[in-house]
Each structure stands twice: as C-alpha cells, then as structure tokens.
Design a protein that fits this description.
The protein is an alpha/beta fold and 162 residues long. It has one domain: HUPs (Rossmann fold), CATH 3.40.50.620. It has six helices and five strands, in the order βαβαβαβαβαα. A five-stranded parallel β-sheet has the order 3-2-1-4-5. The radius of gyration is 15 Å and the shape is globular.
Length: 162
Amino acid sequence: MQHCIYPGTFDPVTYGHLDVLARAARLFDRVTIAVASNPDKGPLFSAGERIEMIRPNIANLKNVEVRIFEGLLVDFALSLKATAIIRGLRALSDFEFEFNMALMNRHLQPAIETLFVMPRGAYSFTSSNLIKQVARYNGDVSHFVPDNVGTALKRAYGAHGA
C-alpha cells in the first residue's frame, strides 16, 4: 500500500491545497494531511481549528486522514510508514525553497521521496497569507476557500479587528 504525507500549516486550508490533495489521493492508496503545529510561525488558527476546517472538505476522500505533527517531517512520515511527501508548487518562486527542503529530507531519510504537484492555474497565485490579508480587510475570499473557512476567517477578524 502506497502512503504519502501532505504536510503544511494550512492556516487556513485553501482550494489550492484541496486541489493538490485531490491529485495526491488519486495517486496514492492512502494520504495523511500533516498539519504542522508550529506556534513560532504565529498562525491565526490553532492546529485543532485548522483540522476542524479541513475535515468537512475531505469527507468525500475515503483514503485521506488528517493529523497534527510536530518535529521533523521525515520522522513523522517514518512513524506512519509513508513512502512519499507531497508538496504543492504554485510558482517558480516556491521552487527554490521546496527544492532545498526536499534535498534536506532526502539527506535525513533517503527512503522517502518528495513529489511536487502543481495546483490548477486558477489557484497558482493564491496563498494562505494572501487570503488572510484580503479577509482581514473584509475582501471576498469565497473563490479561494471553502465556505466554512470563509466563515472562520470572518469570525477571526471580526474578533481581532483589522
């Protein structure tokens, strides 16, 4: 059984993330979405909140699960007996960072492959940070995030203010 890890902060999850995930779910028997619990990044949502935003959007993907992880991604992947890591590439600007990360992961654990997957062109310019910035100023993010995520962003920025 081929198992991959799709890691990220997912703060918040976007249609671009979900597009990459759907592609991974077609390629692998099992996919684990690995939500990074990294408070140093200063996420808007807790790891638990991010998981709760993801869950309803993966209900139709029977071979996908979501978990929180801390520490080295390759250690997490090994603990789940995964053989690959999926990384989304939106634009050339992502490549250098992702390439270096893939090489480091290969150095740490040569048995785990990193595969790069591009989202549909409609999502190639979006990022969680851009979406948060638009939502913070009450802009329309409905084309980029599921309804439950848009609601959570409105609630978060309504409470925190712009």
